[in-house]
Write a structure and sequence with these properties.
Keywords: Glycosyltransferase, Membrane, Transferase, Transmembrane, Transmembrane helix
Protein name: Glucosyltransferase
Number of helices: 14
GO molecular function, one term: ceramide glucosyltransferase activity
Radius of gyration: 23 Å
CATH topology of the largest domain: Spore Coat Polysaccharide Biosynthesis Protein SpsA, Chain A
Order of helices and strands: HHEHEHEHEEHEEHEHHEEHHHHHEEE
Largest sheet: 7 strands, mixed
Number of domains: 2
Strand order of the largest sheet: 3-2-1-4-8-6-9
Structural class: alpha/beta
CATH class of the largest domain: Alpha Beta
Pathway: Sphingolipid metabolism; Lipid metabolism; sphingolipid metabolism
CATH architecture of the largest domain: Alpha-Beta Complex
Subcellular location: Membrane
Helix content: 40-55%
Length: about 425
């Protein structure tokens, strides 16, 4: 046991060094570019500097990828907290439109193995919303379920999801609240695990990591790959090093007293990353934000390249607003693009090609490990390099973005992550 703890400590220390070194390397790259721009430097020297820097980024990325591959299995292997009681829960689902497999996703919450009372509150903002048909189907399928439907168009800020939840909260009868997105599917033990974790000493909020489940098509698969082989390993690394402070909006469980203590839901209607802001507010009270050994399914349904790039750009911009330094360090997740840049900058240097091969193998190793943890086949592996290159372009572009498009509307995002509608729209 002591040897295992020592190994884990060494791994965490190594990860911290890599995570801290990556932003320094990138800052050095920017500073060197500025220095070169202001002085006459021989072309050969410029080439050498660029090759060295992008190669260093790629090497750090390979190390990060291999370490994350070795750690992903630990996430679900952690012990689960069993509830000491089964208090009544109000489960709230804000809805918008007829989404892919909507009834199936909603039904997973109505089939919970939970002995306590559960109230279901579904909310839409338009009386003609197609999601109402899904609610009617659920009522027919589960006639004994305690279901309330809220149709309320009131808006309190640009974040329509939070406005929807504010309206729905008026119908919530119980003090233990669980918010879950409409595109999320959970296992039958979801509430048991979440409630048990929330009952641990000092815990004020429980959130859940998630995996991407793709609808048919190339673009949904690309989106799921970003979630499964980029986001999820990042969560594992962040938790292993203690560097990350995540809170994921896919599902959040919190009691009413804590929610009131942080200002209520209405306090977050102007935030792009309202989940991150809520998590930080809970931590500011001295309570913990817990992430149990649980994965929920998140539907990836981007039907076209335009929808894919808009969604991924908004997601990347959200992370940048919530954690600027962490977003800079996320370059670690892109070893292959940096290795290919080294190949281009070095005119095909042998060492750069070897680094590219190492990056490819590391990414495939990570995919294989994640697929095993998720219990899914090792498929679509040949497309992973293409997915990685697309994600790198989105990552680079996020540093120049100040606007996001959300449900057809354009917003400006300030450095604190607050949304302002574009007046010229």
């Amino acid at each position: 046991m002591l040897e295992r703890q020592s190994l884990n400590t060494l791994r965490a220390a190594a990860l911290r060094r890599i995570s801290h070194a990556m932003p320094v390397t990138l800052i050095a790259l920017v500073a060197m570019t500025a220095l070169i721009a202001g002085h006459r430097v021989p072309a050969a020297e410029v080439q050498r500097i660029v090759v060295d820097l992008v190669s260093a980024c790629a090497a750090f990325g390979v190390a990060y990828t291999l370490l994350s591959a070795s750690l992903v299995g630990r996430f679900l292997a952690r012990p689960r907290a069993a509830p000491v009681a089964f208090p009544p829960v109000t489960l709230m689902k804000p809805l918008h439109g007829d989404e892919w497999r909507l009834v199936e996703h909603l039904a997973s919450f109505l089939e919970q193995d939970y002995p306590g009372p559960i109230q279901y509150v579904f909310g839409v903002q338009d009386a003609e919303d197609p999601a109402l048909h899904a609610i009617a189907e659920l009522r027919a399928r589960y006639p004994s379920a305690d279901i309330a439907t809220v149709v309320d168009a009131r808006l309190y800020g640009p974040n329509r999801k939070i406005s929807n939840l504010v309206n729905m909260l008026e119908q919530a009868r119980h003090d233990l609240l669980c918010f879950a997105d409409s595109d999320v599917r959970v296992g039958r033990d979801y509430l048991r695990i979440v409630v048990g974790t929330l009952q641990l000493p000092g815990v004020g909020l429980v959130t859940s990591a998630y995996r991407g489940v793709s609808a048919p098509g190339f673009w949904p698969r690309a989106s799921a790959a970003s979630t499964n082989y980029g986001f999820f390993p990042g969560v594992v690394i962040g938790l292993a090093t203690g560097l990350a402070r995540p809170c994921f909006g896919q599902t959040i469980a919190i009691d009413r007293a804590t929610l009131n203590r942080i200002g209520g839901l209405g306090h977050y209607v102007h935030h792009l990353a309202e989940d991150h802001a809520i998590g930080e507010a809970v931590r500011a009270t001295g309570a913990l934000v817990a992430i149990p050994p649980l994965l929920v399914d998140h539907a990836c349904v981007e039907a076209s390249s335009r929808i894919y790039f808009r969604h991924e750009s908004r997601w990347s911009r959200t992370i940048r607003a919530a954690d600027p330094l962490g977003h800079l360090g996320a370059a670690l997740m892109h070893p292959l693009p940096f290795a290919l840049l080294a190949v281009l900058a070095s005119s095909g240097n042998e060492h750069a090609w070897l680094l590219t091969g190492a990056a490819l193998l590391a990414r495939w190793m990570l995919k294989w490990r994640v697929d095993r943890v998720f219990g899914q086949p090792f498929s679509d592996w040949a497309c992973l390099p293409l997915y990685d290159l697309m994600q790198f372009l989105i990552y680079v572009a996020s540093f120049g973005l100040s606007d996001v498009v959300w449900r057809g509307r354009r917003f400006r995002v300030d450095p604190g992550g607050r949304l302002t509608p574009r007046l010229d729209e």
